[in-house]
Amino acid sequence: MREVEARPGDTRTDLKGMPLAELEAFFARWGKERYRARQVSRWIYRKLADDFAEMTDLSKEFRVLLSASCRISVPPAERVEISSDGTEKRMFRLEDGEAVESVLIPDEGRRTLCISSQVGCPLGCGFCATGAMGFRRNLGSAEIVHQVCHFARLLEDRGERLSNVVFMGMGEPLRNVPEVSRAVDILLSQYGFGLSGKRVTVSTVGIVPEMLALAEKYPVSFAVSLNASRDAQRSLLMPVNRKYPLPELLAAMRRIPLQSGRKVTAEYVLLAGVNDTPGDAETLSRMLRGARIKVNLIPYNRHEGSPYESPRQETVDRFREILMAAGIQTITRERRGADIRAACGQLCADAKEKMSIHKKRG
Ligand code: SAH
Ligand code: SF4
Known about the structure:
By secondary structure, this protein is of the alpha/beta class. It contains twelve helices and 14 strands. The strands form three sheets. The chain has a ten-stranded mixed sheet, covered by helices on one side. Strands 1-2 form a two-stranded parallel sheet. Strands 7-8 form a two-stranded antiparallel ribbon.
């Protein structure tokens, strides 16, 4: 069993981020009953407790023992930014000084939280601000799940409920499979957040073996970042395409087990003059014909240091119409939170950069 890294000087075991089976094994080693693991998990994820003192159905003696040997990590939310469209971005300061961002997107009845799985990203897609940061490190499951705990609590205080979680923040979740799997277990299980797999989406560039393995293990939804209609074009934009080219990736997408009526999402970032021509739309529709795949078009969001431009609205609409005419369900993702750099591909929490902004403002 892996124990979450503790703050220097704090050797207590972090219970946040431990799936039930691990917590049971941990308590068993202590000579404690199995059911206690379920009780503690429910306090952490359902009642969002971050202090053992709150766990009033545990004996006082057990609570004292827990606080002496264990902890529930709470990385502080250092910066809160709210967009004019209601999108809310928070940056969490991690125990080693790194930082990650999460974005809450309110949309009619839904409250969707976009979470990060890595600090930076190793895959270097040319259009993405996170990719431009390079790779710093993987997040632990406690750091992944904490993003959800934090916003679930915030929403609860407002009389609202978190409805969806998407791994579309910083990082490539399938390059951090062990920790992402532990987090997914907590998100989907009744001892945890109890979210249906329909409401938890893993967005990936399509690391094929990991994608199929995760799909076998958990009924999560998948969104695969295609972003191109041809291999040569995709390899230029996304170096990972050299390892998992389009034919192999599409074959894998068709193999993902799906409940009836469900589809895999293909994400397609539209870059003006690069991959947004009618020819691209036609090639893409031929590739997707007959598959249980729907398309999510994402007009490129600008960020510093990237040479790309956003397409014009007419171009986006024409691209969508071509796909729709071929019978492919297609939506254009609304641009949310761009004024606070919270839109897709704009997250790049850099600890030092953010600290200096913080100082300038404060
Ligand atoms: N690493 C995963 C998840 C994080 S990126 C992945 O790539 O799928 C989430 C989505 O944002 C991906 O579909 C990605 O293609 C898209 N994206 C990245 N940079 C973007 C930008 N500048 N504008 C619009 N979408 C972008
Ligand atoms: Fe990483 Fe996804 Fe950005 Fe590519 S698009 S660099 S995989 S976060």
